[in-house]
Amino acid sequence: MTATVSGHRGLDLEEPLLFELDTPGVSGIDEPEPEPGPTRLGGLEREGPIGLPGLSEPAVVRHYTRLSRRNYSIDAGMYPLGSCTMKYNPRLNERMARLPGFADLHPLQPEKTVQGALAVMAELGRWLCALTGLPAVALSPAAGAQGELCGLRAIRAALRERGELDTRRVVLVAESAHGTNPATAAACGFKVEAVPADARGRMDRAAFRARVGADVAAVMLTNPNTCGLFESDAPELARALHDAGGFVYMDGANLNALVGRVRAVDLGADAMHINLHKTFSTPHGGGGPGAGPTVLSAALAPFAPLPVLWQEEAGWRLIETMDGARARGLSPFGRLSGFHGQFGVFVRALAYLLAMGRDGLRQASGDAVLNANYILAGLSDVLSASYPGPCMHEALFDDRFLKDTGITTLDFAKAMIDEGFHPMTMYFPLVVHGALLIEPTETESRATLDQFIAVMRDLALRARAGDQAAFKAAPRLAPRRRLDETQAARHPVLRWAPPPSSGASSDESSFRTAPLSSNP
C-alpha cells in the first residue's frame, strides 16, 4: 500500500498518543489561579508539575473521537465470542436507566425516598425467581464470579448449620468448567476435584457417581456446559448428590440458551448465579458494570447475604444488619458488597424482561440455539466439530482442520480481523485442543450469519491450500497490524516517556518509565 504524507489512510486516521499531542501553555479551560492558603495534605504536597499534556478542547474531542473509531463494538458488528453472549443491548433499556428518578439516586438516601427503586429490585427478583423456579434471590453480587462466591458461601453456611462443614470438604467441578468455578471453591476453603467428560462432551456419569460421598459438599456444573452442550444427565446427577447430602451449584453463565424453556429447579439446582449482562442484555465488558444475582433454594435462602430486601406494611426495607436479619428468622453468611448491587443494571434488565415477556424470552433462547446450530451446520464440512450432534447456544470446533498446514488457531483468528470480524473465543474450553468457540447469540440476522459462514469457509479453504505466509502476517489491514502479544504480556509498557530530544524537564518525565512501542 502506498504511504501517505500524513500517515493517514483515507478515513483510517493515524492518531498519536495524548502525551505526544502536548502543546505547552495550551488548555481547554480557563480557570483562575487558586488563592494560596493552607492545605490538608499533611506534608504530601506535590513538588513538581503533574505532567499532564496541554491540549485545546477541539484537539481533545478529535483525539478521543478518532480513537473511538478504532474500537470494535456490538453496534458495529457481530461478536462471535463463545461463552460470553455478546448480544445487542436495546436502547430502550439505556433510556430507562437514565431517567432522573433512577440515575440520580444515592445509596445512602433514606428508604422512604427510594421506595420506587426498591420496588424495581423486588420486581426484578420476582422475575428471576419465576424463570428459575427457585424461591429466593440475592441481588448484591456484582458479577458472575461474585455470584458463584455467594452461592458457595451460602452452601458453606448451610453445612455449618447442619454441623457438617468439617466433614464435607470437597467440591466437584466439571473438567470443562470456567476457571472461576474451581477458584471460587478454593477461595471458600474447599478442596476441588475435577470430574472428567465422557465421549459426548458431558460430565461422565460413572465417574461422578463413583465420587459422590459423605465428604462432598457440592458439585459446580455449568448447563449448557462450556462445550456448548446440554447436560442432559443433570437431574439424575443432582438426585444422586442430594441423596448423599450435598448441594448442586449450577453455573448460570449460559442461561441464555435455556431461559423461558428450562428452569434451574427442574435441573436440580440449589443455587445459580445469573449474568444479567449476558442473558438479560445489559452492557457487557469494559470492566463493568456487571451484575450476578444469585437465586437460592429453600434450603439456602435463609443464608442469603446482606442486605436483604424485605417487604413490610410500611413499604420496602433493606435489612442491613445481622441482628435485623436474625429477628426475621434469617442467618445471612455476611455481606458481599458495600451497598446493594448494580442498580442501573437492574433497571436495564427489568426493562428487557418487561419488553420481552415470557414468550419473548422463550423465543430468544430458541433463536440463540437455532443460530448456533446454523453456524455448526454451515461450517462442519470445512472446520472440525469437536463433538457429534447438535449444539446449544454456541458451536465448538477444534484445530484438526488445520493439521499439517503450519497455521494455528491464533493465525486463523488474526485473519478474521482483516475480513472485518471480531475473532471467536480461542483455546477455550481447555479440554479441546486449539478450540474455536463461536456464539452468534439470538440478535444476529441470517444475513450476518451467512456472511460470517462465507468468510470462515474461505479462510479454511485458503489455510488448507497452504497460504501460510498470509495467515502468519495477518492482520494486515488493522491499524497496528500483527503485534507480538507474548512480548506485550511478559513486558508490558504502561507509561509513556518522551523521546530524549523532546526537551521535557526532569520533573515532567520523572513519573514515566519507558516508551510505548508498536508495529507499524
The SSE string, one letter per element, is: HHHHEHEHEHEHEEHEEEHHEEHEEHHHH
Instruction: Give the count of helical stretches.
Output: 16
User: What is the averaged pLDDT score?
Assistant: 92
The end-to-end distance, rounded to whole angstroms, is 13 Å
Shape: globular
Number of domains: 4
CATH superfamily of the largest domain: Type I PLP-dependent aspartate aminotransferase-like (Major domain)
CATH class of the largest domain: Alpha Beta
How many strands, what sense, and barrel or not for the largest sheet? 7 strands, mixed
Using only C-alpha atoms, the radius of gyration works out to 26 Å
Classify the helix fraction into a percent range.
Answer: 25-40%
Q: What's the count of strands?
A: 13
